[in-house]
Structure formats: C-alpha cells, structure tokens
Specification:
392 residues; alpha+beta; Aminopeptidase; Nonspecific Lipid-transfer Protein, Chain A; 3 domains; 13-stranded mixed beta sheet; five-stranded mixed beta sheet; 11 helices; globular
Length: 392
C-alpha cells in the first residue's frame, strides 16, 4: 500500500507546536530550546510533512549564500530534518526532501547545503560531499610568538557591521564560506547560559585588520579559549593574534576553533602543535544547473568553454546538455553543446565546490569525458578546497 503524504509550510500555531514536539523528540532539547530556535529561524522558514492529517516530519530552510570563486551564490541551508520514529522506514524523509528541493527550484535557488546525519538519505535526493568543517585544538604554551606591534581593542557586540565587513573580506577568497544570515550572526554574538563573550579588533579601530570573538570555558577540567569567530586579513594581524592568545597561557591551557582543513596561519607557529581533532563533511546539491554555473566565480584570466551533459532524476530541467563559457571571471550558460563532459547531479556538486577535482571524479568513475574536456574542467574549477566555520 502506497503511503500518501502532503507537504506544506506551517499554517497555524497548532502546527508550530506539533513541529516543536517532533523536533524535540528527534533532537532532544526543552520547549524553551524550541522557542529560541523557532524565533531564530522564523516560522515561515519551516516545512512539515503530513501523513493523512498528522504531521510526522519537518525541516528548516535557511536562506543565505556561499562564496565560490569570489562571488556569492544564493544558497538554501537545510537543517533540523526530523521524522517521528514510528513513521520511519516508509520514505517520509525522502518525500520531505524531494518536495523541498522542488520548492527551492521553483524559487530559482541555485544550490542547497546541509550537514548530514546520514549520507545515504541525502545522496538519494542528489546531495554529495561539498566541503569540510574542521575542529582544531592548540596548546597555548606552544604558540611562543611575541609580536605586539598592532594594538588590540576590546569592543562591544551590539554593532555587528564591524565584524561583518572584516568577515566578508576574508570569506570572499574562500570557497564554501557562508554569506551569513542574521540567524548565524545571532548564534555567534549572543551569549548562552550566562557565559561572557569577549571581542577584540586587531589594529587600528578605524581600519582594523582582523578580529576575534571568544569565550573562556572554565567548566572543563582544563581551562580553554573557545573561538566563536575570527577573521585575519594579513600576516601582521595573524602574528598579533597568536601573541594575544599566547599571553593567556598562565591560566588557559588550550585554544580551539572551527575552520578549514589547512589553515595557512598555523605556519607561523614554531612547531606543528595545532591539530585537527574532528572533521565534518557538509553536503551540497545543485538545485538549478544553469543558475548555479552562471553565478559562481571563475579564474579571472581564463577563457574557456566546457560542454556538460548532466543527469538529474528529480529536476527535469537539470537534465541535458549545457555549454559553460568562462570569460573574465564570469560564467555564461546556454542549452546545447557537444555534451562531452558527462556527469550526474551528485558528482557535479563535488566538482562545483572544488571539493574534488575533475581528475579525482574521473578516477572514481563519476564522470565520463575526453582528455581535452578534462583538462579544461580542471582549469575552470581550480581553487582552494572548500570549507566553512559555521554549523547550522
């Protein structure tokens, strides 16, 4: 017997309460946790799935963007995907996601990203590995830098624009970094459970070269600084920040932060004492092939043309041949072409973010192409490995 589902946004307070019950059962937390999350995301950004009259599943859609090739691509972040235990194993989660993807396509959203609890489900609907979030740890005593040329200015948290400007200067050169929405900034800047947040600008107050936002975690056996967020625009700012952190060594044992798999500023440390203790891989789906390829940035000096043949078993208009013409850092997409670069929608996600190179995808059997097209694609999608520091 086929199970009948209906998909919609939240229409009344009863549905909001019901989704809160589903979310708490799936992820834990209290009613106040749900109220905070609901207000943070906004009720209009949640979706539910019903079986008959009963809501059995839901998720949140976070409108934001991601930087790729130096340009912001509008992106829908998917979060809090939950299905009641008694309704699992019948295709509810896949139905919920299929409907969400179709809705995003109708809204002309180019891409979507998420952090998977299980890859199998999200691969079924076209998501694939797109980039990393790494948790780093560094013993404070091992920093040993003494560079205090730039001043450090403690600042308040009320004016978010101070940090946004510096963050965006850093983010635009990193594939995968978020164009952060208000909800992400709120989670960085709002204290939780009576904690105190410290924020400092690095360099001149009028023209700072970086910032750090952190808490001092004193609940653990060993005291640590947990960096909520930071941005460093040059080596002078990085050296000053490492010195600032080192100056906490009499009381603080370690520093931890979230970031990329390769942090170039750790090369300034005397030894390899900064370690990745955990890595999470986020996933991405191409929602609209033409839009996604045309909005991404590309190498400025490159003049090239790639003839793709894409397959997508969910979005019909993503199927077929597309010609991508790259010139002066921009991409133009038209229907048709030779189609000598054959790739499915999942593999296109890993290529698009530069998480895997065309040669790596080819070696896995994830694309079929000619040597000439492979070489062109390698140039077009060159770039640093994608990452983000934000979890949603």
């Amino acid at each position: 017997m086929t199970v009948q589902y209906t998909y919609s946004s939240l229409s009344n307070s009863q549905e909001i309460d019901r989704l809160g019950e589903i979310t708490r059962q799936c992820f834990g937390g209290s009613p106040s946790d749900w109220e905070y999350y609901l207000n943070l995301i906004g009720a209009e950004n949640f979706r539910i799935l019903r079986q008959g009259e009963k809501a059995i599943a839901g998720l949140a859609i976070l409108p934001m963007g991601q930087w790729f090739g130096g340009k912001i691509v509008p992106m829908a972040g998917i979060a809090a995907v939950g299905v009641l235990p008694e309704a699992r194993g019948k295709g509810a989660a896949r139905e919920l996601l299929n409907n969400t993807i179709k809705e995003l396509h109708s809204l002309e959203i180019p891409i979507s990203a998420l952090y998977p609890a299980t890859q199998v489900l999200y691969r079924q609907v076209g998501y694939e590995q797109g980039g990393s979030l790494c948790q780093w740890e560094l013993p404070t005593a091992s920093i040993q830098l003494k560079e205090r040329h730039l001043p450090m200015h403690r600042v308040g948290l009320s004016d978010r624009s101070i940090f946004e400007n510096l963050y965006n200067q850093q983010a635009q050169v990193n594939n995968g970094n978020l164009a952060r929405p208000s909800a992400i900034w709120s989670r960085i800047l709002e204290p939780r459970q009576e904690e105190e947040i410290y924020a400092y600008l690095i360099g001149s107050e009028n023209a700072p070269r970086g910032y750090i936002i952190f808490i001092q975690n004193r609940d653990k056996k060993e005291k640590a600084i947990e960096i909520r967020d930071w941005a460093l625009l040059d080596v002078s700012a990085a050296k000053r920040l490492w010195t600032f952190l080192s100056d906490h060594r009499s009381e603080i044992v370690g520093i931890n932060w979230r970031g990329s798999s390769v942090n170039p500023f750790t090369l300034l440390l005397p030894e390899q004492t900064a370690k990745i203790i955990r890595q999470t891989i986020w996933m991405l789906r191409i929602i609209n092939v033409s839009l996604a390829l045309s909005l991404r940035g590309y190498p400025l000096q490159l003049e090239a043309e790639l003839h793709l043949d894409v397959s997508d078993n969910l979005i019909a208009t993503n199927n077929g041949k597309f010609c991508l013409q790259v010139s002066q850092g921009r991409g133009e997409v038209s229907q048709g072409g030779k189609g000598d670069f054959k790739i499915d929608i999942r593999s296109l996600a890993s290529l698009y973010t530069s998480f895997l190179s065309p040669r790596q995808l080819h070696s896995l059997g994830y694309l079929k192409t000619t040597p000439e097209a492979l070489a062109i694609a390698t140039l077009i999608f060159s770039g640093d490995r994608p990452w983000m520091a934000d979890f949603f």
